[in-house]
Amino acid sequence: METKSENDVDMTAPMPKYAYVRCFDMVDDLVEVELAILEPFRPRIYNVIKYEPPDVDADGRKFWRCGLPIHVFTSLLVSLRTRRLCVGKNCSLDTLMHAFEHEAIILSTPFDTPAHFERPAGPQRGIAFPTLAEPAVVSLKAIAEQAATAIVSWPRLEEMLRTAKTSPGLPRACVSTTRAWLAFDLKPTIDRPDTNADKIVHLCSKWPKWLRMLLLGIGITRAQMIRDGKLGEDHSQEAYKVLTTSISASPSGVLWFINDDTPSFARTGNENMDYHGAQHFVQFVRTSILGAARLLENDHGKVQFARSIVQFASNVLTNSPAFSTIFGPECADANGGTVERKHLHESLRERGVDIVRWTGTGGPSGGGAPLPDVARPLCFPGLSEAETKTVALLDFSRVL
């Protein structure tokens, strides 16, 4: 006569050293199992013994059912003890392999035995095997430093703060004499052309804002270098290399153009000359590409120069950080805090600027009201036409 043990399983109790197991074809006999053999592999029967209450036979012995025939079960036990596949009497290999699968045991060649054939290396993917050249926190700190440097070096922001005390005070201006709301751009996407279409021509035909702004920044840098005698006015590949190398070496990185973003009313004479020269340069680049069929007959070098400049601008956008995503609220905690916002807050504090709050949150990371619908905060870095939810209130009172 068999009964079910009335005692609940004590999850905190230590496992016994041995346990009785019954196979379905040997109902009158029990197999004594040393649990130390099963423990390294954690098969199904081990978890049954650990987490399920046992049955009790007529002699008062507690046992668990394995659901396997005796020859298969003993072959499995011997294989686990010796860590070699052992097929016992009256047990086929196919049946034993299915038993291993049933017990959730993975078979492989032992480490101390050479494989019968060369096998591919195990997967080395996922966060357990980082492939980045540097940890994510290092790149996040670099992005925060880059953004903070660009913000405090932005002529347009400086002029908005300076003129706030004499401006009409429109509610959408989002600027006071010491504070300003800053909206972090949604990163623009590069519109892919149809199959077999020319990507450069497609970009110049669509003429998105980000391309206009980057080409204008490249044109201003070019005009400055020409005025300083560091670059000629030709359109050779050598001139392209000198120009792009200078831009790539800028301390502001992909945000180099921020340093020359000055409102028209605040530009000096040289800055006006550079700006108008840059506008002519932008038009030259676009017309050279769109009119390439006509120009190729006369000046192949100009077309190549213009195409290289547009490709460089495209690479700048591709490599630029997605600020609205990095500092966005989607992965923030209950108080609006993220690791990325913390790094930006620290970088700005080192430069005398404080983050008062983010939209919808109070404190540098912590509830408040969103901006009114009429508000139009200054967009950083100003390459996108789409609205963003990543908006911060910055305080400049320590540096003004």
Structure explained in plain terms:
This protein has helices at residues 35-38, 44-51, 70-82, 93-102, 136-152, 155-163, 199-206, 209-227, 237-248, 269-290, 292-295, 300-319, 323-326, 339-350, and strands at residues 3-4, 18-22, 31-34, 55-56, 62-65, 179-184, 354-358, 378-380, 391-395. By secondary structure, the chain is of the alpha+beta class. Strands 1-4-5-2-3 form a five-stranded mixed β-sheet. The protein is elongated, with a radius of gyration of 35 Å. The model has no long low-confidence stretch (mean pLDDT 84).
Kindly summarize this structure in a few lines.
This protein has about 400 residues and is of the alpha+beta class. It is built from 14 helices and 9 strands. It folds into 3 domains: about 5-100, Potassium Channel Kv1.1, Chain A (2-Layer Sandwich); about 135-185 and about 325-395, no CATH class; about 200-320, no CATH class.
Give descriptors for this structure:
400 residues, alpha+beta, Potassium Channel Kv1.1, Chain A, five-stranded mixed beta sheet, four-stranded mixed beta sheet, 14 helices
